[in-house]
Amino acid sequence: MGAVKLLLPLPKNVDGVTLDPNPDWSFDALLVELNSIEKKLNGSSEFPIPFTKAESRELSASKNNSRRGFIMQVSDDDMEDLERDTKDEVGNHFVKGGKRFACDEIYLSDSDHSEEGLGIELQHDLMDKVGLVESALSELAHEHHLTIADEMRDQLSALEAEFMDENEKLASTLERVERNIEAQREMNRKFDMQYQRKIAEALDDHLTAVQRDHEHRSQIEERRIRDDAAREEAKRKEKALQEEKARQEMIRAEAKVQARLEAERVEKEKAAALEAERKAAKEAAAAVEKKVSESLMNVPSEANKVSKEVTIHKHSAAGNTIRVSENAQKLEEKRLMICSEIASQNEALGSRSNKAYRKYEMEIARRIRTITGTKENVRVKADELIKLISDSTCPQSISIAMFAQKVVSLCVNPTGSFNSAVYAYGRVIVLVTSKVPLAMDVLIGELDKVCIYAVPKYIIYSETAFQTKEAYYKAIGYAEEDGKIESTDSYVDRLSAYMKLYGALVQTEVEGCQNLHGLREGWAWIARFLNVLPANLYTAAALQAFLEMAGFALHKRYKTQFRKMLDIIAKDFLTALKDRGDAKLNKVIVNIRNYIESNQFLKEPEGWRLRSNLESHNFTPESDHQQQYGYQQNSYYR
């Protein structure tokens, strides 16, 4: 910053004030006057003038005390205030204590340019006049600036040091905060792991307790079942003993009657020889037809009723001759009428055209196809089927028809899994029909449609009734494939599957549920079969399949009466088969004979007892009725 020189020539008139200094003033008097002016300037100025000195000017009188002018240098920052204050002071305060101070002229310059405008000679003159004052003022201003600069540097250094300390403190604080946060996170992780470990231990303890409770309940249930089975077995033994006693008494009574008759016959032999011969001939002729009835003399009431049924040789409108018992025919007609009514009702509801019904049909079919021989699977599938059949979205008549048709259709092209799951099918059927009884009549009706031997009945072939063999085959149940009648082997396999399903159904008993087509119907079927049906390949295959499925349960229920039935089959039915001289019959004859002679009906069939997901190591099966898991699968869909 350039210095501004203040030239003070002594004017004769300043602001109207005439200055008439004493030309004879000494230098000491001049210094006193200047000090006075400076004090006044400092007192009147709002801010202190930078070049003001605290000490008075004291110079020797011998130094240029006769000079009138001087040069004063100030900074640009103080120039404006200096000019204003100088005007006022020079114009009004240059008279002090009766003395006068006069300046020839006053010249103020704001820039170095005005200084340059003055002559070098004038500057030299002024410097010569006030050199010491100028030097003192310049030195004071320079010292002041240096002092200010040093103070500012010291303050900046102090601020910088303080700032660095604050930064270091902040960095240290942030580092501590981060360490604390990381420590807190690590602690939280440890707490989470401990909490998860406690939860896992608690869950494991809970599951262990639940499993232990379940095992305890299972053991209690098994003990209860064993106790019930023991009581039931005791009742059966007692009942069998009473029946055996009654049979022995009847045999003794018959022996007495026979002895009396024999005595009478001997006495009248000579007199009635002709009559005795005629009577013997009649008895020999009727012996074959009466063997079944005689063997059932001591069986339960339902079997006695069956033995008294009348065999009907029915001629249809087409001239077909049908062999069927009277009661079996009535039951078949009743079931077919129910099926016809259901079909008519479903046709009116548009079951074939409604896509929503097709969805239900697919759901029912999927659940039937996925039935397996485990308790849990059977329970779940039965519950799901009951829920689907009872769903109000689909009419129940349609759901029942779908259920019956899908069950029967399982027998078409049976696979290896069919035999292992057939008892499970029977149990599902019993569970479902116990809640929806109408489904049993519809299912048996659908089975009678596709397998006449389930009635049982037999259609006799005659050339007058059937124009071709193919027509007869269609009448007894042969299927047509690509315009051709299926092979006999294929028909026999499908017939056997139908009868296995039927046999598994009738022998099924479920605790807490009533089988609407149980062992009583199975016993009636075998009695009607032997009374009505002839011995051939088809009837033999049907009988073999039925015995393999239901023989075990029938023997458990009827014991000696069932053995008598097997004796009739071995003596009469198998003999009649052998007399036909057909090589195709050899296999089925061997199978039935082996079944009877090796007492296979005493062994629990494979798949008869359902597998359990929760193994019971202490359970020994004793009850044949409460622990039986036989099932049937009747399914046919067109």
TrEMBL record:
Tagged with keyword Ribosomal protein: no
GO biological process, one term: poly(A)+ mRNA export from nucleus
Keyword list, A-Z: Coiled coil, mRNA transport, Nuclear pore complex, Nucleus, Protein transport, Translocation, Transport
UniProt keyword Protein transport present: yes
Gene Ontology molecular-function annotations: inositol hexakisphosphate binding; phospholipid binding; translation initiation factor binding
Region ranges (Disordered): 210-244, 618-638
Coiled coil, from the record: 149-194
Compositionally biased tracts (Low complexity): 626-638
Subcellular location: Nucleus, Nuclear pore complex
InterPro entries (alphabetical): GLE1, GLE1-like_sf
GO cellular component: cytoplasm; nuclear pore cytoplasmic filaments
Family: Belongs to the GLE1 family.
Protein name as catalogued: mRNA export factor GLE1
Recorded name of the encoding gene: LOC104231651
